[in-house]
């Protein structure tokens, strides 16, 4: 199998899906039309609710949802072979992820841009709304701390990466101010992109200067700086920092993967992995469980991800200019993210299996596998680092992309540069999600605690905004600084996909209320059935085989208890939803317009 065949087939499949299934979801199921103003117009405040050009909104949404997931998940899932990950990405993204993202964004906009917990309360009742809010607060806190920890280790004592990431902040603020004053998006984008590239490529030249010394920062200091930065990202007007930074970052994100696609076409590397490895039944060095359910837990972003529900019911619904923009912004961005994940999978599986497992396994574990490396010594020499045992997926992606790029003749001596550039690129990928995620966390805190103190619910109340932003940053910042997040890192996969299940539950409820044909509800029920069963089985497997198994190295009672709590919350929500669906089916209902609350 060669990489070009996979890329061409995947692009064709995703384009057809967007044109046919995306149009069906947008105009038949959700009945999108533009006669009614969106919440961005109805509630415009120049800060959170801001009507935004659909391509800027697309850039923000894509940059926010495409964090570590589509990069790292497929890398780790390569343990099972190239085919399980490829199939789950294509089928999961079209049938599950794109539908999930579109219906969550639509459901939030119908309720004035409210968070998913508030939408759940309106659609399913107070108990389901409370459980949804509690689950969302738990998941977003862990997610922000976990994503930040990846950035922490990418930028630690790395002045080049720190400079390249930091320079995007003043550039984005300048673009935001210029665009707001002139309305000239093309010029703002062009100048911003050029400055961004200058900043990126200037990084190596500042390493040995005074600026480089200032930017050589240890992990503990970075753990304080990141939450402080996130506070401003959450508290400042969305047009000043968040939207333009994500919009500009999306250029680099998409641009790097377009370059990777071109590199794949030029080199046409062979996929070195088999379709299935010997680890599909479990017992692998990276993922202990079997291919099902763990392929759908390991690969979230890129196929379907609950984190997207935070963005789709957080920042994005407050920015959509026209209702029909939901199709390109939500459905379209999910399919682009799927392609990003496929390219990450190709970068991993183009490596020799022995090299891949040597990078992603601890040395003693790799030795027990009985495998031999092929090109790893050469890669170590070219990149200038010892790559063995650098687990977690990020280094593997950088090595895989570097391996492809340096096969192009005029790039053959640039391995260290490409490797460091991809590491920095991954950090920017993740930081844009931290920007939006922290702002969403602020919204969730205001919604959740606003039940006990009403003024907190007002997004125009400055003290409430500051309090919620500080609390959000403190919650995940404390976990980041203390390092305690490592004790619950394994909960990410299950909790994230549980959140996606909740999003599909809300989507199914809304579709049942507004669609012309009740069978359209199946667009959410089919992926929901698969995902809910998968999540609960994976959670049960982890609790019984790992967390509460004293003979296992991952034994952790706290993780087991937290897993059980999350799964119970999911059951409560789906029981409330089923009761609601039965009532709706059994009683005549007033016909709701497609965009009526």
From TrEMBL:
InterPro entries hit by this protein: CstA (IPR051605), CstA_N (IPR003706)
Positions of transmembrane segments: 6-27, 62-80, 86-107, 127-154, 160-179, 186-206, 221-242, 254-271, 291-311, 331-352, 417-438, 459-481, 487-512, 524-548, 560-582
Keyword terms: Cell membrane, Membrane, Transmembrane, Transmembrane helix, Transport
Membrane topology: Multi-pass membrane protein
Residue stretches making up the CstA N-terminal domain: 2-535
Subcellular location: Cell membrane
GO process terms (BP): cellular response to starvation
GO cellular component assignments: plasma membrane
One matching Pfam family: CstA
Family: Belongs to the peptide transporter carbon starvation (CstA) (TC 2.A.114) family.
Protein name: Carbon starvation protein A
Organism the protein comes from: Paenibacillus albicereus
High-level lineage: Bacteria, Bacillati, Bacillota, Bacilli, Bacillales
